[in-house]
């Protein structure tokens, strides 16, 4: 049996047997917590009643201590520890999900820097909003299921912050709550037997997992700032017929339609290097990944999710697409769930209520696919914390011939995999537990609404379109020819609007001719704060003057068409610039040698 023991420093699960004596059990507890056997007392009740005598030979069964019970440990001299810092929840049964089990703890990771939206929502009351004249909520909290079900549209999962309020309501306001991450791995450091596969025991063996649909979600809504963001992303599929993937950059804000809810607002889509066909996507190594993250951070943006297309043209004459993802097939395939779980684990949610410093994720998945009206729809999801754990610990596989089914791995000599179960109804309507081999992935998926605002918002205000990165296959390249064309088309607008384009800023930082990574901060701050004065200050910088010189040099013409005279630059017939002209690529790349430069077609240097 497993007995949970709550102390001011956290909770531990202590394996034992029904026949174990109280004295033997207390020795086991001392070993688990690293205490001297005489340095603490254990009680059956939170208010320090029902003390377990450390010298008695009575068995746990006689003391009526059962599997899953919670006991309370107080170190010697801890008279001043208030009872409310101990567990305030009802004892969970042995089938409780590890992802939702919790206990209050003095050691809640207070040093963890949570996202600003989480800090904000933690301070809000989160009452249920009622219509005019209806009066106060009268005890109904942000987790009230009746209220959520009567929203339009109905809300199937409460927000994560509402979920915390439901579990930790009381005098402490959830201040000491601790959320527990699932682990599917054998606990290390068990010395009572040889390592797996030669041995395993209840102390180091991970618990079996019974999958349930998650009752809360970390993100409740996804909103694209305006339609152009999505339309430009779809252009790749429209022009090639191949699928496309991108990362969503934006910010997390309060979603006021649901109590204590979070919205992911999308301001831009970055398309990393990838190989794409009509039915597959392969991500490639991205040398610009760090630069993209740095630029986004300075703009006040974070990577909030990923988006991919699954589009098949139905009728090209009227622009319809096939409706393929539905209740008769699948909404996310098992392979896509695993990929989503992988991304969510990479972008875990900082959480001070978890002893690990993180719990769940706010990273979202958006699919551009055909809807029931045969038009392109954007459907959004997350996978559950249980799915994240199965993916992180490499316990979940896709099925080759059934995309809607996953498969829980079986234990091998290299890896122990706990049993994974799910519940469903048989043909007689009875609840039956099944081994997750195979597993319907619907147990792992959480729906999220996707919206576009009535009044478009613009983090990036440029009205012109600078080419999107990594689209060379379309003939859309990011170079100084395209920059020259872009600037000539934008000459009538303010300089702030000209540079307020995510893809342009990325090019300025990552181009090989004149990268501005160390001198771009001022213009990024100008775009972030919509400050024209800052933009004008940066426009007068030496760096921008060099960029303009490069653009005027190429003049929108291919380099090979320039009339080069003597070594050192173009002749007077091809350029009005002075004889001091030199190839900036040779100069700034600092690569002297005899090979020809691709910019000026002359020996480098």
Automatic annotation (TrEMBL):
Sorted alphabetically, the keyword list is:
Metal-binding, Zinc, Zinc-finger
The region called Disordered is annotated at 120-144
Any idea what this protein is called? NPL4 homolog, ubiquitin recognition factor
Ranges of residues in domain MPN = 222-359
Set out the biological process GO terms recorded for this chain's protein: ubiquitin-dependent protein catabolic process
Protein source organism: Gadus morhua
PANTHER family according to UniProt: NUCLEAR PROTEIN LOCALIZATION 4 (PTHR12710), NUCLEAR PROTEIN LOCALIZATION PROTEIN 4 HOMOLOG (PTHR12710:SF0)
InterPro entries, A to Z? MPN, Npl4, NPL4_C, Npl4_Ub-like_dom, NPL4_Zn-bd_put, Ubiquitin-like_domsf, Znf_RanBP2, Znf_RanBP2_sf
Q: Which GO terms describe its cellular component?
A: nucleus
GO molecular-function annotation terms? ubiquitin binding; ubiquitin protein ligase binding; zinc ion binding
What family name appears in the similarity comment?
Belongs to the NPL4 family.
């Amino acid at each position: 049996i497993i007995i949970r023991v709550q102390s001011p420093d956290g909770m531990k699960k202590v394996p034992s047997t029904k026949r174990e004596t109280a004295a033997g059990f207390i020795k086991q507890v001392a070993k688990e917590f690293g205490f001297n056997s005489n340095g603490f007392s254990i009680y059956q009740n939170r208010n320090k009643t029902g003390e377990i005598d450390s010298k008695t030979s009575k068995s746990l069964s006689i003391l009526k201590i059962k599997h899953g019970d919670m006991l309370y440990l107080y170190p010697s001299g801890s008279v001043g520890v208030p009872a409310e810092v101990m567990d305030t929840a009802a004892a969970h049964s042995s089938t409780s999900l590890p992802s939702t089990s919790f206990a209050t703890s003095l050691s809640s990771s207070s040093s963890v820097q949570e996202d600003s939206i989480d800090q904000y929502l933690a301070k809000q009351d989160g009452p249920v909003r009622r219509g005019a004249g209806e009066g106060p909520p009268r005890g109904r909290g942000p987790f009230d299921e009746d209220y959520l079900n009567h929203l339009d549209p109905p809300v199937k999962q409460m927000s994560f912050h509402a979920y915390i309020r439901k579990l930790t309501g009381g005098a402490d306001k959830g201040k000491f709550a601790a959320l527990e991450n699932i682990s599917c791995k054998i606990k290390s450091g068990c010395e009572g037997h040889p390592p797996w596969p030669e041995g395993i025991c209840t102390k180091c063996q991970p618990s079996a997992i019974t999958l349930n649909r998650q009752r809360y979600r970390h993100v409740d809504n996804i909103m694209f700032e305006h339609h152009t963001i999505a339309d430009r992303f779809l252009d790749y599929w429209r022009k090639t017929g191949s699928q496309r993937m991108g990362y969503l950059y934006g910010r997390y804000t309060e979603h006021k339609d649901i109590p204590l809810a979070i919205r992911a607002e999308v301001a831009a889509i970055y398309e990393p290097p990838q190989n794409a066909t009509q039915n597959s996507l392969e991500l490639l190594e991205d040398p610009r990944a760090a630069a993209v993250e740095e630029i986004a951070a300075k703009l006040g943006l974070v990577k909030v999710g990923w988006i991919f297309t699954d589009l098949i043209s139905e009728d090209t004459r009227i622009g319809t697409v096939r409706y393929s993802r539905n209740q008769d097939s699948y909404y996310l395939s098992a392979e896509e769930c695993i990929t989503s779980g992988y991304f969510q684990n990479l972008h875990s949610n900082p959480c001070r209520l978890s002893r690990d410093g993180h719990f769940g994720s706010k990273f979202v998945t958006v699919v551009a696919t055909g809807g029931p009206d045969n038009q392109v729809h954007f459907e959004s999801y997350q996978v559950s914390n249980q799915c994240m754990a199965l993916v992180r610990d490499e316990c979940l596989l896709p099925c080759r011939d059934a995309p809607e089914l996953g498969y829980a791995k079986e234990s091998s000599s290299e890896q122990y995999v706990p049993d994974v179960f799910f519940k469903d109804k048989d043909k007689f309507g009875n609840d039956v537990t099944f081994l997750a081999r195979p597993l319907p992935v619907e147990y792992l998926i959480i729906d999220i609404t996707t919206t576009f605002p009535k009044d478009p918002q613009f983090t990036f205000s440029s009205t012109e379109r600078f080419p999107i990165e990594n689209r060379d296959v379309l003939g859309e390249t990011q170079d100084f020819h395209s920059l020259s064309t872009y600037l000539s088309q934008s000459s009538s607008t303010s300089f702030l609007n000209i540079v307020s384009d995510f893809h342009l800023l990325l090019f300025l930082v990552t181009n090989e001719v004149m990268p501005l990574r160390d001198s771009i901060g001022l213009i990024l701050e100008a775009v972030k704060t919509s400050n024209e004065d800052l933009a004008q200050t940066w426009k007068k910088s030496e760096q921008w003057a060099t960029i303009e010189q490069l653009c005027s040099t190429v003049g929108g013409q291919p380099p090979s068409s320039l009339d080069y005279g003597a070594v050192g630059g173009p002749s007077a017939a091809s350029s009005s610039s002075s004889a001091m002209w030199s190839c900036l690529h040779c100069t700034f790349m600092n690569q002297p040698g005899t090979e020809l430069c691709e910019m000026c077609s002359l020996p480098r240097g």
